[in-house]
Amino acid sequence: MFQGESAITIDEKGRLAVPTSFREQIAKVCGGRLVFTYNPFELGSLWLFPVGEWETLRDQVNALPGVKAVHRAMQMKVVGAAAHVELDSAARILVPASQRAAVGIDRKAVLLGMGSKFELWSEQAHLAKIHQVIGEADITEEMMDLKL
After folding, report:
1. pLDDT tens across 67-82, in order?
2. What residues does each domain of the chain span?
3. Which of 16, 42, 63, 110 has its CB 3.0 to 4.6 Å from that of 126, i.e. a possible disulfide?
4. What are the angstrom distances between the C-alpha of 68 and each of 38, 65, 73, 81?
5. Fold classification of 2-132 (topology level)
6. pLDDT of amino acid 104
7. How far is CA 140 from CA 120, 122, 135, 146, in A?
8. How far lies 55's CA from each of 43, 72, 78, 128, in Å?
């Protein structure tokens, strides 16, 4: 399970160095093989999956009936845009240029461990999201049982 927040820098070639705290776990879980795709629910963010987790999600998304526009949009953003990457010998991965441009990731970014996947956020989008407060009106029934 991945968790934690890391401020990272994307180099001039579009690579990010995976934080040392995640390297061993990534090697163990997926042999350094990962998949980037768009986060269809949040602007300014990409998802990064270990290949096994990706294959499960890919199959679920592809199973959605294509007769609904929202299903086709999800398939396009998640499956159609998927890019396989591998850690190099320096534990770096190449973030696809088209995806970086589409979500506004430049040199500074934030990598979040989100359980079974990572989210890669532009620094600005992450900061804006962190500044949003969850108000009383936003609390769902499922959240009521949390012991915070």
Report:
1. 999 999 999 999 999 9
2. 2-132
3. 110
4. 19, 7, 9, 19
5. Chemotaxis protein chec (3.40.1550)
6. 97
7. 26, 28, 11, 11
8. 23, 18, 11, 31
